[in-house]
């Protein structure tokens, strides 16, 4: 019974070859047949709501798998269920039909789904456009071209219209608007900020999450550079140059097991996080050292393998759940419909390549040795990435969502984000257990009734390539300056946080380390334990937990030891990776006298090695190797 309910329909797929990848895709496409409308134009996967209408949500379920289907067909593959999508194109765009998707309005969700559709025409025209009747083609191009005179958000959405027009161009449609397409491209290029990075919007927007990479901008630039090389060679070469630079930063968001660091919004798209690597191959980018096609292949396929082993990511019939490693409505956005997760099908883009492409011909290689055991400042996203000791994570200061997004403080404002431990989101608005306050300094001015965490970060910068420094203001009479110091080779499993607080009110603080899987070997809640065994530990200014996921702990370095360590059992389903988590936390009380309050926190974390393995032996010796506060920061503390 050990494996009962702990496998997925894809668990046994080795994902080594192009054929393996195609089988994985088919395994995702086949279950959709049972959820497809009679006319093929809508796929209904559930009843949860979004801010947009239900027809648009069902269009989303129909369109997003096309990222994979088009790649499969464009690469010479076949799929028996292709007719479902051909029928859907015919019936979804028929204005007199029962399954009509509806004409587009300004800032319409339907615009998003045009991206995959335009890509499909450009990549697999002979399979997904040519078989349609003349009447169906006319309806189709009228519907798709209907977005050209509509208002769009000033974000990555503009790429969706670019791809709609690219598809219309490949179809030879009179609805292709070359002027509109060029204007969109020119405007999208104003988002570029250098070194390969683009922000998700105009100047003033400070979101550089996965939309700046795999979810949208980098992927779109690479796909465009392949598909529009003949018409727009200069821009296409510029996009390939950007990708070469970007890749050397983006690789630091992936660990040796293939996991990407969860950060930002839309994480229910799951393995879309790795689609950039397939897009590099699709665009035939000349790779910068130390990247090779074997390395890129490994980054892509290891990420996919990780997801085939997450039972909570799939329903028993093979359809995707809304969530991350398990169904989770608390971490979603109001634009996540049951069909939204199929944005992950972008990661099948390598299926569009022939088996003779270097991506498929290369032997898969592990994570590059030259990029292991590193600490790297990433100046544009305001991250410091590290994988010292085999723990891949980022320290983060300075990003925030420029418009309302559920749980944005958790998605952008935390102090660190880990590939092994994920991050947590609030599941309520009351107790500390509900908060999910990992990797954050949570503050309360009402004795713990409600809590505030960092959301709007100001004056963020990386100082001398050594640490992150920023300001944040949770109340008008409270200011907090935070330094985030990465690990060192002398203490590779520790990082430091230093906070200077000036407050006009009495505060309670709760500073969390990394949340960790909170069950013991018997599957029950962790019990107290002092040493190597699985369990929790609370002593003075220390809190710690050890389980099969590794070890996580926090130590109070300052404040005269007045903060107390706890191993807090967070409410279920708050952490994206561990549905039952324990959070090492330091608790403190602070007077509101406007004097400097210095909090110095050492954060310890060792992830387990391999999938579902136990903790590393000998970690208690590493626990004793405490980090050192940098002299420059210690000098500031000593001034008080």
TrEMBL record:
Parts of the chain that traverse the membrane: none
Highest rank taxon of the organism: Eukaryota
Pfam families, per database record: DUF2264, DUF2264_C
Record-annotated DUF2264 domain positions: 17-367, 374-635
InterPro entries found in the cross-reference section: DUF2264_C, DUF2264_N, UCP014753
Protein name: DUF2264 domain-containing protein
Species of the source: Cyclocybe aegerita (Black poplar mushroom)
Organism taxonomic ancestry: Eukaryota, Fungi, Dikarya, Basidiomycota, Agaricomycotina
């Amino acid at each position: 019974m050990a494996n009962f309910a702990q496998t997925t329909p894809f668990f046994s797929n080795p994902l080594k070859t192009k054929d393996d990848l195609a089988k994985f895709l088919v395994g995702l496409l086949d279950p959709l047949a049972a959820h497809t409308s009679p006319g093929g134009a809508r796929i209904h996967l559930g009843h949860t709501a979004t801010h947009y209408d239900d027809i648009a949500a069902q269009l989303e379920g129909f369109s997003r798998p096309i990222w994979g289907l088009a790649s499969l067909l464009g690469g010479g593959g076949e799929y028996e269920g292709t007719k479902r999508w051909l029928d859907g194109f015919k019936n979804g765009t028929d204005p007199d039909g029962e399954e009509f998707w509806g004409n587009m309005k300004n800032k319409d969700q339907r615009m998003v789904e045009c991206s995959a559709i335009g890509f499909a025409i450009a990549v697999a025209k002979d399979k997904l456009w040519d078989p349609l009747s003349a009447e169906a083609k006319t309806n189709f191009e009228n519907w798709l071209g209907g977005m050209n005179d509509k208002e769009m958000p000033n974000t990555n959405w503009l790429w969706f219209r670019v791809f709609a027009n690219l598809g219309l161009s490949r179809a030879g449609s009179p609805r292709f608007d070359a002027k509109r397409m060029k204007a969109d491209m020119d405007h999208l290029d104003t988002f570029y900020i250098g070194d390969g990075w683009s922000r998700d919007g105009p100047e003033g927007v400070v979101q550089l999450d996965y939309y700046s990479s795999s979810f949208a901008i980098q992927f779109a630039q690479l796909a465009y550079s392949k598909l529009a090389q003949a018409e727009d060679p200069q821009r296409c070469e510029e996009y390939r140059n950007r990708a070469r630079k970007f890749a050397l930063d983006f690789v630091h968001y992936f660990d040796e097991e293939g996991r990407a660091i969860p950060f930002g919004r839309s994480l229910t798209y799951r393995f879309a996080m790795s689609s950039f690597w397939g897009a590099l191959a699709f665009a035939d980018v000349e790779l910068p050292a130390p990247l090779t096609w074997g390395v890129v292949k490994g980054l892509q396929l290891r990420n996919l393998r990780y997801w085939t082993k997450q039972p909570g990511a799939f329903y028993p019939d093979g359809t995707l759940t809304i969530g991350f490693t398990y169904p989770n409505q608390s971490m979603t956005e109001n634009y996540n419909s049951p069909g939204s997760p199929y944005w992950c099908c972008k990661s099948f883009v390598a299926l569009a390549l022939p088996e003779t492409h270097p991506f498929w011909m290369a032997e898969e290689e592990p994570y590059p040795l030259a990029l292991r055991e590193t600490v790297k400042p990433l100046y544009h996203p305001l991250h410091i990435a590290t994988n010292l000791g085999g723990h891949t994570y980022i320290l983060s200061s300075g990003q925030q969502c420029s418009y309302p997004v559920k749980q944005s403080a958790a998605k952008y404002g935390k102090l660190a984000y880990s590939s092994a431990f994920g991050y947590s989101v609030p599941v309520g608005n009351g107790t500390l257990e509900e908060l999910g306050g990992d990797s954050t300094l949570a503050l309360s001015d009402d004795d713990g009734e409600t809590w505030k965490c960092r959301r709007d970060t100001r004056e963020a910068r990386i100082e001398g390539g050594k640490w992150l420094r920023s300001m944040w203001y949770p109340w008008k009479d409270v200011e907090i300056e935070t330094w985030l110091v990465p690990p060192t080779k002398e203490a590779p499993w520790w990082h430091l946080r230093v906070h200077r607080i000036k407050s006009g009110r009495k505060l309670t603080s709760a500073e969390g380390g990394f949340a960790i899987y909170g069950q013991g070997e018997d599957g029950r809640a962790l019990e107290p334990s002092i040493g190597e065994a699985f369990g929790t530990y609370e002593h003075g200014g220390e809190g710690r937990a050890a389980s099969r996921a590794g070890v996580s702990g926090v130590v109070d370095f300052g404040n005269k030891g007045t903060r107390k360590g706890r191993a807090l059992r967070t409410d279920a389903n708050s952490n994206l990776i561990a549905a039952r988590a324990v959070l090492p936390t330091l608790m403190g009380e602070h007077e509101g006298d406007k004097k400097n309050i210095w909090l110095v926190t050492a954060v310890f974390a060792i992830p387990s090695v391999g999938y579902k393995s136990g903790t590393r032996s000998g970690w208690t010796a590493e626990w004793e190797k405490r980090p050192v506060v940098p002299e420059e920061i210690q000098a500031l503390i000593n001034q008080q």
